[in-house]
Write a structure and sequence with these properties.
This protein has 470 residues and is an alpha/beta fold. The protein contains 17 helices and 16 strands. Helix 4 (84-91) crosses helix 5 (93-110) and helix 10 runs parallel beside helix 11 (316-327). Ligand C2E binds at residues 233, 249-250, 261-263, 266, 282, 305-307, 337, 367-368, 391, 424-427, 444-446, 451.
C-alpha cells in the first residue's frame, strides 16, 4: 500500500518529499550524533578517554547482576596516584593531565581486553576484573606497581609516581557497586597505614562498620560535651634529674563506658577523618595549659602526639601559629611527636608540613622509634630533633641483654645524628640506672610517674623528687 501511495505522488512532489525526508534524516542523524556525543561526554573522561565514574558504576552494576546469575566472582580495584595535587602544583596541570594519561595507557595495556579501566576521580582509577579469589593477589597488581618503580617521563620531566591500590571482592565484601567501591577505598587507606602499596579490604579494619560509626558519632558528641581531658606524663632530664617536659596524652571519660583508652578511639578517628577535630582540641588544650602553668610560674614544654592524617592538612602550621598567638605561647614550648609510619604515609606532604613547623620553632620528635620501618637513613633527612625509643625496648631493659644492645646503639646513633634521645616505658630503678649509664638524655615511664591530671602534674612539678628547685 505504501508503494502505491508513493506512486500516486506527482513527480515534482515526490522530489520535494525526497529532499524533505533527506533533510529530515540528516537532521535526525545530527541529533542522534549530538546525543551520542553528549552521552559519550557524560560517560567518559575527557583527559584519558576512559569511562568515567558514572559509566564505571553502571557497568559494574551490570557485571554484578551477571555474576549473581552465573556465580562468578569479581574484583574491583581502586588505583590512587599519590601526591597528585602536589604534582599538579609543582609541574602545572598540563603535565598533571599528561601524567594521568600516561598512567591510563599503562593500565589499559596491562589489563585484558575485556577488563574495565575507568577514571574514577581526578587522582583515582578503577579497574574491574574477574575475581581471582580472596587470598590470591592478581599478578596484575604487581605488574602495575612494577611499572611505576621508575619515574615516568612526561614532557621532559621524570616524575616519581606512587600508586596505592585497594581491592574489594564480590560477593565477599559487598553486593553493590557503591559498597564495593567504598570498600576498595577503605583498603587504600589501610594500605597507606601499613606503608604497603596494596591491600585487600579487611572487614576487621573497617572504620565504617556500624559499631564504629556509633563511636564516631559519640566522639563528636563527646567533644561537644567536654568528655575529653589531657593527662600529662613527665619527661625527666637524666643528667639533672628534673622535669623538662610533659607529654600530653588524651583521655576520654565516656558517660556510660567509663574511661576509654586512646588506643581504642584514635585509630578510628584517624581512619574516618575525625582526627582533625580531635587534634585541634588537643592542640588548643595543650597550648592553653602552657599559658596557665606559666601564669603559675611553672615553665614547662608540652609534647603533643599527632597522627598521619594531621600532616595531610597543609593548614596545620597556620592553625598552630594562630593558637600560639592567641595564648601568647612560644613555639619552642611545643614538641610534636610523630611515628615514622605517620611520616611515611605521604612523605612529600609530611616533609613540607614538618619543615614549616620546624621553621616556626616547634620541636619535632620521632615517636615509637625501633618498631616499624626504622629507616634511619630516611629519618635523618627529616627536620627532627628528638628520638623516642619505643617502650618495648625499655620495659625489660634491666633483664634483657638484647634490649640493652638495641638501646645502647640507638642512643649512640641518635646522638651521632645530633638528636636528643628519650627512652619511654621506664618502669623500674634498674632500667633508669642503665639509661643514665648509656648516656640517654631523657626518660619517661611509670617508675617516674604515670600520666597525671593537670592538677596532680602541678604537684609533681613542685613536690616530687624530680621537681625543679630554684
Ligand atoms: P604514645 O605516644 O607512645 O604514648 C605513650 C604511651 O605509653 C601512653 O599510653 C602512656 O600512658 C604509656 N606509658 C608511659 N609510660 C609507660 C610505662 O612505663 N609503662 C607502660 N607500660 N606504658 C607507659 P596511652 O596514654 O594509653 O596512649 C597510647 C597512645 O595513644 C599514645 O602512644 C599515642 O600514640 C596515642 N595518643 C595519646 N594521646 C593522643 C593524642 O592526643 N593524639 C594522638 N594523635 N594520639 C594520642
Ligand atoms: Ca608519644
Ligand atoms: Ca611512644
Amino acid at each position: 500500500a505504501d508503494g502505491n501511495y508513493v506512486e500516486k505522488i506527482p513527480v515534482n512532489q515526490a522530489d520535494e518529499f525526497g529532499r524533505l525526508s533527506e533533510t529530515f534524516n540528516q537532521m535526525m542523524d545530527g541529533i542522534a550524533e549530538r546525543e551520542l556525543r553528549i552521552e559519550h561526554q557524560a560517560l567518559h573522561d575527557a583527559t584519558t578517554g576512559l569511562p568515567n565514574r558514572l559509566a564505571f558504576e553502571r557497568r559494574f552494576e551490570a557485571a554484578i547482576s551477571a555474576a549473581e546469575m552465573s556465580g562468578a566472582r569479581l574484583s574491583v580495584y581502586l588505583v590512587q596516584v599519590g601526591r597528585f595535587g602536589e604534582i599538579n602544583n609543582t609541574f602545572g596541570h598540563d603535565i598533571g593531565d599528561a601524567l594521568i594519561k600516561e598512567i591510563s595507557v599503562m593500565l589499559r595495556r596491562i589489563v585484558k581486553q575485556n577488563d574495565i579501566v575507568a577514571r574514577h576521580s581526578s587522582n583515582m582509577f578503577a579497574l574491574l576484573l574477574p575475581g581471582a579469589g580472596l587470598n590470591v593477589v592478581d599478578p596484575i597488581v604487581q605488574r602495575i606497581l612494577d611499572q611505576v618503580g621508575d619515574p615516568i617521563g612526561v614532557a621532559g620531566h621524570a616524575i616519581d609516581v606512587t600508586l596505592w591500590i585497594g581491592e574489594a571482592c564480590f560477593p565477599e565484601h559487598g553486593t553493590s557497586a557503591k559498597t564495593l567501591l567504598q570498600r576498595a577505598d577503605t583498603a587504600i587507606f589501610e594500605a597507606k597505614r601499613n606503608i604497603r602499596h596494596f591491600a585487600v579490604y579487611d572487614p576487621a579494619q573497617d572504620p565504617h562498620k556500624p559499631e564504629h560509626l556509633s563511636t564516631m558519632g559519640e566522639l563528636h558528641a563527646g567533644l561537644e560535651r567536654c568528655e575529653f581531658k589531657l593527662f600529662y606524663q613527665p619527661k625527666i632530664d637524666l643528667n639533672s634529674d628534673t622535669v623538662v617536659a610533659a607529654e600530653a596524652l588524651i583521655r576520654w571519660f565516656h558517660p556510660s563506658r567509663g574511661l576509654v583508652p586512646p588506643d581504642s578511639f584514635i585509630p578510628l578517628a584517624e581512619q574516618t577523618g575525625n582526627i582533625h577535630k580531635l587534634t585541634a582540641w588537643v592542640l588548643e588544650a595543650a597550648i592553653a595549659q602552657i599559658a596557665a602553668w606559666r601564669a603559675m610560674n611553672l615553665k614547662i614544654k608540652i609534647a603533643v602526639n599527632l597522627s598521619a592524617r594531621d600532616l595531610s592538612t597543609r593548614r596545620l602550621p597556620e592553625d598552630i601559629a594562630l593558637l600560639l598567638n592567641r595564648y601568647r605561647v612560644n613555639a619552642a614550648d611545643i614538641i610534636i611527636e610523630l611515628t615514622e609510619s605517620a611520616v611515611m604515609a605521604d612523605p612529600g606532604q609530611s616533609i613540607d608540613v614538618l619543615t614549616a613547623l620546624n621553621k616556626m620553632g616547634l620541636g619535632l620528635a620521632v615517636d615509637d622509634y625501633g618498631i616499624g620501618y626504622s629507616s634511619m637513613a630516611y629519618i635523618r633527612r627529616l627536620p627532627m630533633q628528638e628520638l623516642k625509643i619505643d617502650k618495648s625496648f625499655v620495659l625489660k631493659l634491666a633483664s634483657s641483654a638484647g634490649d640493652q644492645i638495641i638501646v645502647r646503639s640507638t642512643v649512640d646513633l641518635g646522638h651521632n645524628l645530633g638528636l636528643k634521645v628519650t627512652a619511654e616505658g621506664v618502669e623500674d630503678q634498674a632500667s633508669l640506672a642503665i639509661l643514665k649509664d648509656l648516656g640517654c638524655g631523657t626518660g619517661q615511664g611509670y617508675f617516674i610517674s604515670k600520666p597525671l591530671p593537670a592538677a596532680d602534674f602541678e604537684r609533681f612539678m613542685r613536690e616530687s623528687r624530680w621537681a625543679v628547685r630554684s
